[in-house]
C-alpha cells in the first residue's frame, strides 16, 4: 500500500486545507479541517514531509509538527506562487505547497526556536517604538513650524521645541501649547520604553556566546548581534560567506543575459533588519576612520579615495556579513580589530 510522502498545508486562523501526495506526485487526499483537527490528523499519518508556507504562526506549527516526528519544510510564499495553477483559493494553495515542497532546488526557511522568536519580538518592538517616536517628533516639528518654531530633526533637538512650548512669554496660542505638551509626554514615555528594551537587548546579548563573539567586530553592537542571532538560520545553511551576504540582500541586482553581466544597485531582496543594521554599523566605522585616519594603502583608504561614501558603506557591510559567517562557522572572535578602519 502506498503511503503519503508529502502533505501541503495551507495555514489559516480557523479553517485549514491539506493536500496529500504519493511519491509519484498523484493525489492521495484533499482535506478541509478545523484548527483543532490539524495535529490529531497529522498524528494518524505515517512519518512524511509536511510543507507549510513561511507565514504568520508557521514556526509555531513547525515546532508542533516536528514534535510528531514529521519533517517540516517552510517555504517562502513567493516561491509557492508559481505552482498555483489557475484560480487562487485555499485548496489550490495547499496543492501548490505540496508541489513546491519536494523540489530538489527549492529553498526553505529554518524553523525558529521559541527563544529566537522571543528575542525577535523584543527587537521588533523596539523598532516599532522608535518609528512611533520619530512620527511624533516629526508631527510636533511640523505643527510648531506653522507657528514660527523651527528645530532640526532628531530627538536631540526636542529641547528646542519644549523650550518654545514652555516659554514664559509664549508667542503661540494656549491650545497649541497644551497639545504640544501631550506630544512631549508621549515622546518621553516612548523614550523610556525604548531605553528599557535596549537594556534588555544588551543584557541578552551578554548571555550568549555567539552574540558576545559578534560584538568583537567593529561596527557591531548588542542590537545588531541580537538581530543576527534572532533572524538568521544556522550558518551551516550557507556554503560560504558570500551566500550569507546574498541572503541579506547585500549584492547587486543582476540583469544579465547573453553571457554579459549587467549589475545594478543593491538588491534589497533579503533580510532587511540585519542589512540595515550592518549598513549603519559600516557608516559608523567609516566615520570613526575619518576622525582617526586610515592606514595608507588599506582597503578602506583606497575605497574612500575613489568611491562615493554610500557605496563604500555597502561594500564594507558586505565584508562584515562575510566576516560574520566566518566567525560563527569557525567559532572564532574577530581577530584584526584595526584592519577595517586602518
Physical arrangement of strands within the biggest beta sheet: 3-2-1-4-5
Q: If helices are DSSP runs of H or I spanning 4 or more residues, what is the number of helices?
A: 13
Q: Approximately how much helix is present in the residues?
A: 40-55%
The total domain count is 3
Shape: globular
What does this structure look like?
This protein is of the alpha/beta class. The chain folds into three domains: 6-100, Nucleotidyltransferase, domain 5 (2-Layer Sandwich); 114-205; 209-330, no CATH class. Helix content is 52%, strand content 11%. The protein contains 13 helices and seven strands. The protein has helices at 38-44, 58-66, 77-80, 90-100, 114-145, 158-165, 174-205, 209-214, 222-231, 241-248, 272-292, 299-306, 309-330; strands at residues 6-10, 15-21, 27-34, 49-53, 71-75, 252-254, 263-266. The strands form two sheets. A five-stranded mixed β-sheet has the order 3-2-1-4-5, with helices on both faces. A two-stranded antiparallel sheet has the order 6-7. A hairpin with a 4-residue loop joins strand 1 (6-10) and strand 2 (15-21). Helix 11 packs across helix 13.
Write the layout of secondary structure elements.
Blueprint: E1 6-10, E2 15-21, E3 27-34, H1 38-44, E4 49-53, H2 58-66, E5 71-75, H3 77-80, H4 90-100, H5 114-145, H6 158-165, H7 174-205, H8 209-214, H9 222-231, H10 241-248, E6 252-254, E7 263-266, H11 272-292, H12 299-306, H13 309-330
Parallel strand pairs: 1-4, 4-5
Antiparallel strand pairs: 1-2, 2-3, 6-7
Helix pairs in contact: 5-7, 5-9, 7-9, 9-11, 10-13, 11-13
